[in-house]
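Take a protein:
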Amino acid sequence: MTSPQILIAEDEKHTRLALHLVLRQAGFGVILTANGRDAYEKIRQQPAGHPISLIITDFKMPELDGLGLIDKLQEANIRIPIMVITGYGDKELLRQLHKRGCASYIDKPFIPAEVLTRIAGVLPRTEAVA
């Protein structure tokens, strides 16, 4: 069985690399992008035999932000669980994310164990890495 693929859309290089390290050490496959536009293209190009299991996206990014990415995926009828990570969280943002069907939310700065706990709660048990 191949490990689940997680796509990260994060414009801050240090945060992107920290997430990459945490996820790789936990046994996940990782695809890195720096904005929502590139994330959308990677998702559209992903081979059917090795689908993306989860998207972790920053809320504020250049070119296409996290909400824009969520909206674009919904318009294209692409159904992949999405977790938003941001330093700008408030009740209005949480309401918008919930309304759009976002699977989970994490505040920056994040604790690696919390990221993995949230992922375990989002991914189907069959995809979770032991």
